[in-house]
Amino acid sequence: MNNTPIGIIDLNFQGRKQAIAAYLIKHSWGLILIECGPGSTLPTLEAALVDKGYTFSDVTHVLLTHIHLDHAGAAGFLARQGAQIFVHSIGAPHLLNPEKLLASANRIYGDEMDTLWGDFLSVPEEMLNIVDEAIEIEIGKLRFNPIITPGHAEHHIVYLFEEICFAGDIAGVRISGIPFLGLPMPPPELNLDKWRESIARLKQEKFNRIAPTHFGIFDNPDWHLGEVDKNLESVLRWLNELMPTEPSNEEVHEKFTALIDAQFTESEINEKDINIHEVFNPRGMSADGLIRYWKKFRLLN
After folding, report:
1. 225-259 pLDDT tens trace
2. Which of 15, 116, 183, 292 is most buried as measured by Cβ atoms within 10 A of its Cβ?
3. What's the pTM value of the predicted model, to 2 decimals?
4. How far apart are CA 148 and CA 194, in angstroms?
């Protein structure tokens, strides 16, 4: 039974509800955040904290599932307010020195970079904590068990807390009330084979709720993980049929867009909800991730 209250902060990314969540847990001397969102949503995060009677300085710990901008962009700011930041060893250097990460993102987002993501400040070294799967994270009387789950990104982690799984992006993206679960598959670290292994690993764990960062807490983790598995198999079949024909990148984008459109139609999703999905799971970025995955892990094997 989950006894600890968990708050869902909707960061209202780009004015869209249910796009990015930060999960709030109170402990004996402060607050824990699972994910912190991008720098651009700090005003929303601050307003949510103030509404509950807190300030940024009450946040003592931030547990990141990975360092993509929509999950970790505000970590440096919060560290400078006193929060300890927890992250995978592969992601840690990019938080200490984010220049390479930001340069890569800037090539993708260009002039929209600041509007979308805001400032991404470095995390001071003394505020950075490397997550080890073998070591339970203890914060007061609360215990978090990290599990390394590569696939979406090599440095991805989920956190098991009581009977809930904070799943980041490895469990896909899902909005309450919408019968659709999508897979965010961006470059450069996408690996569908490792993703399947990570889902198999999670199926062996015991939890009765699952909380993807996009978006919300759900009471049917078995269905949820099964849907991720089904979608991974579907994408792999699609790749195995298409890529041996040596399509151009443009053709891959076109056919992937048609594939996702067909899934939206089948799920009877309205235009508003499609737009929300596109914000945190743009199909063009997933198409690029699949192209890179095929060339890196399948073409030469």
Report:
1. 999 999 999 999 999 999 999 999 999 999 999 98
2. 183
3. 0.92
4. 11
